[in-house]
Amino acid sequence: MSSDNPSLPATPLPRVGQQTAWRDFLSFTRQRGGFQLGLAIVALSLGLAVFGPHIGPYPTETALPGMPLQPPSWRHWMGTDVSNMDIFSRVIAAPRIDLTIALVSTAIAFAGGVALGVISGFFGGGRGVPKLLSEGIMRAADIIQAFPVFIFALALVGFRGPGTENVIAALAFLNIPYFLRITRGAVLQVRERPFVEAQRCAGNSEWRIAFVHVMPNALTPPLANISPTIGFSILLTSGLSFVGAGVPVPTPEWGSMIAIGAPNMMTGQWWTALFPGLVLGIVILGYALVGDGLKEFLDPVNKR
To answer: What confidence score (pLDDT) does residue 187 get?
Structure first.
């Protein structure tokens, strides 16, 4: 009986491509210890962002009576700060605010940067209004990136006032040019492929070709840079909080905890700033390791 008999039920094709990609990813992960370490740190930070404020042994925003500057002990694993707060409870609760700011700002920057990068890259070689729009986007990105990042972020937050929403807006605004340039570089390569001209011959509009056909083939570089951008956003958030322009106290946040504990380190209470700073560095390292691993895994040159 012919296989194209309409009375026969259609047999779904196995997801061979997805299974192969998953096996390749697992094999890649097993061969790279740094990538494994980064994934473990990222997973732990995400877990703490969800459960951290609920598993700490002490309140995170309430002072403990008569417990200032207690050194690390079995009762207080990381000691207490000058405000009589348990440092360990605050350290494991901080990922909720730090990661929320980093993830939301990075998502906004990714969406905006990719869209602008597609427009700038695809229409950069054209004429008329699209060409002017492309040039205008790139010149605006040049102006934004001409300023030191931290100073610009400090100015933006200072203009709007400290607060979580303002920090998110500032970080998203500063990271958009980064994703814009990465996406634009990928689009400049993809737009020269033969399938783009085939879509024009099929009658598709330039905007449809740019966002439906070119953009999906240019997403690998920006996707690979999401993880290090999250780590950078966490660092910048902590820096803003350190100088008092970020998350207001007593909200548990690594940068503000370091700022509160730094003066006490000069008088011998080293634990007040050491543990928040150490955890901050480890988390940023984890996201950087994941970003490096994803860049290597998604790079077609490394495919065998």
So the answer is: 92
Q: Tell which residue, 35, 27, 91, has the closest CA to residue 286.
A: 35
Q: What's the whole-number mean pLDDT along residues 115-125?
A: 87
pLDDT at 127 over 90: no
pLDDT digits (tens, 9 = 90+) for 20-32: 778 888 888 888 8
Between 43 and 125, the higher pLDDT residue: 43
